[in-house]
Amino acid sequence: MNKPPSRRKKTTPAASNDSTLPNDLVEEDISPQENPATATINVTAVEVPELTEQEISDRLHFERKVERAFFEAGKALTELRDRRLYRSTHKTFEEYCRDRFGHSRQKSNYLIAAADVYENLTTICCQNSGIEDLTTNGSQILPTSEGQVRPMTKLEPQEQWQVWQAAVQEADGKVPTGRVVKDVIERILERTKAPNPYHLGEVCQIIVKDNPELRGKGGCWCIVSHVGEFTCTVAMWDREYTMRIDHLKSLNYLESECQQMQEISDRISRLWEKGKLEAPTEAVLKCLGELKRPYLTEFEEKLLGFIEQEYGIVD
């Protein structure tokens, strides 16, 4: 029987000064039995250069711009609304917001209210820190979205500051979510028994929750007619209701808008007090009670005026 040929390992000549091995020698140095999992891989470390002072300043500047985006939007909407800069193309601010920005008037009101809270926080922070411009202070945690400050819109400026600091602390020094801010407010209210946040004449939205008496009224507007310690009496399109404050949500209307809604409410109440209303009339009043805006359209005004005339109600 012939003997199988033996495999000999080639060696590199000792006298060779060439650091590059021939291809056949390189192949022979890698053992076919070597386990790839145990192979050693050399990784070259890449050094990341530190930020320069200018880059650090630029980063902070841009971060503050991102944080202030919702604030700038709220302040701009305030100018557009208060100066009626939409009047050349739209009759109402609501129509303008919907057509130009694709969101409701309520969304605009949220942004406007949030901008006020943000301004209060930065003003108090500057006063406490002794600085004039927070864009140069990277250590101060500020809100970055409207939803984070929405729960604080009903609080006084100093209360907003205290709540925000407590929420930042609860979030381990990071920007807290709106849920964290709301939890902080609820704990403070429970601890201090803060007064009812609503006031006479305020326009609110009904939140049904667990109150069967309010079934079918979810989303309807109402006007606060009495403020208790933990409840409110509100006037709706059909009658008055007394409910806990957690069944209400403020619509953040301006004082003038609340007065407009009060006038509409009074007109509806006078009709309702007539009694024995026909079904179409009740349907119209219910529809007006579900308005998502603080005014009547031209058609709604004519329709309500016609009904008032039919039932003998004259101003």
Automatic annotation (TrEMBL):
Regions of compositional bias (Polar residues) in chain numbering: 13-22
Question: Compositionally biased, Basic residues: which spans?
Answer: 1-11
Entry keywords, A to Z: Plasmid
Chain residue ranges for the region called Disordered: 1-26
Determine the domain of life of the protein's source: Bacteria
Q: Tell me what this protein is called.
A: Site-specific DNA-cytosine methylase
